[in-house]
Specification:
By secondary structure, this protein is of the alpha/beta class. Helix content is 46%, strand content 15%. Helix 12 packs parallel to helix 15. Bound molecules: nicotinamide-adenine-dinucleotide (NAD) and magnesium ion. Nicotinamide-adenine-dinucleotide (NAD) binds next to helix 2, helix 7 and helix 11.
Length: 404
């Protein structure tokens, strides 16, 4: 629904006279991306108005956010947690919705102009499709949506919604492509910090602990993406994300190690020019750009002092030590539902690692065994994705069980 088609009175009363403010729904508001998105809102209260927020189970934080930002709708996936929240928010006029459906409800909420999807995992796919189907701007952090349902996301985009990537690398490429002709692009180069184990050999990776894996050198993020960064599967998921977002073949998507995480990614043009986007690592910048586009809003959250940084370095990614990256290229090239299978197997493997059930190098083994057993098929609907994921989760659980 466009702003013009809403009841103007209701809209103006609700927006408290902020006629130009964009209505924002934040899915996963209690997470790393979600809380940083709220910081962006706090920095731009005249431009953004939070209309809906959702979380999985964190009652305390969601209640606090609801009281501070006064959305109209609050969604809590876990029903028991939703019941507690509903009684705590009684009398505030805020509607509390329980269950997985709350994600789609928030994604299509009429007052939302922009939907920020900061959910972790492929649970983010239904609201991604719903937001685009409802003609919203989707500020997408949830890369698993695209990895699990890339073809479906592209189909949904044709119906009129708009997708702006929040992932810092894809945000950087989006930035570098402003005003450019896509046919002039030869390749894109995704930068990888390398995670906490950059430079380690395979032997050195065998015994790393959960605590080691969660100690990321440059970014503070949720646990799942932090482990993905340590295995380099995060970069693998981003290669697939880039393939769908920018329409490039896998051979034209390169990865380079860049431990400082200041150059967020690059575009290579046909004349040999490289364009890059640089800034200190801070997700509030790509979040803000996805919300403000085509405008830019200041002041900066962080300034970049190049002289103080001194040097920026680049190197090869060690694909022999970190095999998840090539598993992602393999699934991407297989196409169809192979990337949904890769993603689901990774979600199971990472959860098993975090629970101490498998070792670090078992993560790639579980994913590879699942991919090896998979019979290729295409995705025509969300149900196809759900079925393939169900099979992949069961297969990956079995492979994870073999570790113990
Ligand atoms: P997080 O674990 O900190 O937060 C996840 C949020 O999603 C929480 O609000 C949680 O309540 C909610 N959630 C979890 N499981 C859910 C489910 N099954 N259904 C509905 N809601 C659920 O994760 P994060 O680090 O904020 O990452 C979120 C997404 O953004 C991921 O896809 C990640 O890859 C991507 N991303 C994150 C960063 C970062 O800096 N954190 C950077 C780039 C991309
Ligand atoms: Mg990223």
């Amino acid at each position: 629904m466009t702003r013009a088609s809403r009841s103007p009175n209701l809209y103006n009363v609700f927006m408290n006279g902020k006629a130009d403010a964009r209505g924002l729904a934040i899915l996963g508001s209690t997470g790393s991306i979600g809380t940083q998105a709220l910081e962006v809102v706090a920095a731009h209260p005249e431009r953004l108005r939070v209309v809906a927020i959702t979380a999985y189970s964190n009652v305390e934080l969601l209640e606090e956010q609801a009281r501070v930002y006064r959305p109209l709708l609050v969604g809590m996936v876990l029903p028991e947690a939703a019941a507690v929240l509903r009684s705590r928010l009684a009398g505030t006029g805020i509607e509390v919705v329980a269950g997985t459906e709350c994600l789609v409800e928030a994604a299509v909420y009429p007052m939302a102009d922009v939907v920020l999807n900061g959910v972790v995992g492929s649970a983010g796919l239904p609201p991604t499709l719903a937001a685009l189907g409802a003609g919203k701007r989707l500020a997408l952090a949830n890369k698993e949506s695209i990895v699990a349902g890339g073809e479906l996301v592209l189909e949904a985009l044709k119906t009129g919604g708009e997708l702006i990537p929040v992932d810092s690398e894809h945000g950087a490429i989006f930035h570098c492509l402003r005003g450019e002709d896509l046919s002039d692009v030869d390749a894109i180069v995704l930068t990888a910090s390398g995670g906490p184990f950059y430079g380690r050999s395979r032997e050195e990776l065998a015994g790393v602990t959960v605590e080691d894996a969660l100690a990321h050198p440059t970014w503070s993020m949720g646990k799942k993406i932090t482990v993905d960064s340590a295995t380099l599967m995060n970069k693998g998921l981003e290669v697939i994300e880039a393939h769908y977002l920018f329409g490039l073949p896998y051979d034209a998507i390169k990865v380079v190690a860049h431990p400082q995480s200041v150059v967020h990614s690059l575009v290579e043009f046909r004349d040999g020019s490289l364009s890059a986007q640089l800034s200190m690592p801070d997700m509030r910048l790509p979040i803000a750009l996805a919300l403000s586009y085509p405008e830019r809003w200041g002041p900066p959250f962080k300034n970049t002092d190049l002289a103080a940084l001194g040097s920026l370095t680049f190197g090869e990614v060690d694909r022999d030590a970190f095999r998840c990256l090539d598993l992602a290229y393999r699934a991407g090239r297989e196409g169809g539902l192979a990337t949904a299978v890769l993603n689901a197997a990774n979600e199971v493997a990472v959860a098993s690692f975090l629970q101490g059930r498998i070792g670090f190098l078992d993560i790639e083994r579980v994913i590879e065994e699942t991919l090896d057993r998979y019979e290729p098929a295409g995705a025509r609907s969300l149900d196809d994705v759900t079925v393939a994921e169900g099979w992949a989760r069961a297969t990956a659980e079995e492979a994870a069980g073999e570790a113990g």
